[in-house]
């Protein structure tokens, strides 16, 4: 999508620090990390949010989950563990409307809301 920040990052129009990439998925460092390791994992095709998933694009979630495991291994957080967060919509606190999974780790996460 033309004016989507993450589509522009995927195309290389806006610089990012790549952590992992494959045919379906791009993973890069969050510009404002909340934890020592904070990586965003996004589908290469534009999907607004979880709410925009449907039978035609749902397979991207499998690709994303596979990539999350790779990212955890690459960044070395696979052993001690990590948290994955997806914000959806206004009440979920989503600010960039291209589906993205936050992968957070490198420290013990103490703030527990669930
Ligand atoms: P959310 O609030 O769940 O929509 O997450 C959006 C995330 O994108 C935030 O954690 C931002 O820090 C991150 N972000 C915004 N712009 C960039 C950028 N140019 N490169 C990397 N991460 C970004
Ligand atoms: Zn997009």
Low-confidence stretches: none
Overall average pLDDT: 97
Q: Which fold name is given in CATH as the topology?
A: HIT family, subunit A
How many strands, which pairing sense, and closed or not: the largest β-sheet? Answer: 5 strands, antiparallel
What's the name of the CATH homologous superfamily? Answer: HIT-like
Shape: globular
Please give the share of residues in helix.
10-25%
* Span between termini: 34 Å
What is the CATH class designation?
Alpha Beta
Structural class: alpha+beta
Tally of domains:
1
Describe the structure.
By secondary structure, the protein is an alpha+beta fold. The protein has one domain: 2-Layer Sandwich (HIT family, subunit A), CATH 3.30.428.10. Helix content is 25%, strand content 22%. The chain has three helices and five strands. Strands 1-2-3-5-4 form a five-stranded antiparallel sheet, with helices on one face. A hairpin with a 3-residue loop joins strand 1 and strand 2. The chain is globular and about 35 Å long. The mean pLDDT is 97. Adenosine monophosphate (AMP) binds next to loops.
